[in-house]
Predict the 3D structure of the following.
Amino acid sequence: MVKSMTGFGKANCEFQNKKITVEVKSLNSKQFDWNGKLPNVYKEKELEIRAIANRLLERGKVELYISIENTTIAKTYVINKDLIKSYFAEVKELSYELGVTKTDELLSVILKFPEALISEKDDLVEDEWETIIKTIEDAILSVDFFRKNEGAILAEDFKQRISLILGHLATIETFEKERLEIIKERILSGLSKILDENKIDKNRMEQELIYYIEKIDFTEEKVRLRKHCDYFIDTMNEPSSGKKLGFVCQEIGREINTLGSKANDADIQQIVVQMKDELEKIKEQLMNIL
């Protein structure tokens, strides 16, 4: 099955006084490239989350973001006494140096300083973690569903382009009889001008003609090209087929190039250019295939 590496998924859950949202985004990459943005309470589980994403998505640049929204009105804070004392002493000394005598509201100002108030640390309990894991998997599976839909669209595009390549090959075959006649006339004309019939080494001439005919005959290339195109279509049904399809494209490209070099015919070479164009479009899309 053809899957795109591009996808997005989102899932939500609630646990006690928390609403938890998991968002996952995937882009194309040659390997599994992880970027997790997690609240501190889940940091200890990042390797486990990464392993789940790797198992379900296999490859791609994956970004996973978890956010927590507290559903209760109030949140419990702890005063950071040691830090506030340090702030107070330094600010009071600075006030004295600057000649500021009014320090009545000094404490209320200091309480707004960074980390003067600390929210109570939430410990991750097993029940919450099980809920989170299920939500993460749901979000990742949404990405996978997105990838499958994108892949199905790309698969149809691949089939159409392979069909066009085969159609161009059939068109080339319509030129082949005329092409061979022109080449034959060219050979005979050349021989009649430079050779004296009584002095011809017929064995040598036959060998040279056979060698030349082999150089211009592309029957084998046509057969191999058709087989490679059929194999490309079959390979699309395999899991994680992106890299393998890339290798098949290389083989298709070799046969198309050989057709062009052997053709010795302007019309056929123009058709070969169209075949190369279709193949190049397939290669561009394959960069986004799992």
Notes: The two ends are 9 Å apart (CA to CA). The first strand starts at residue 7 and ends at 15. The mean pLDDT is 87.
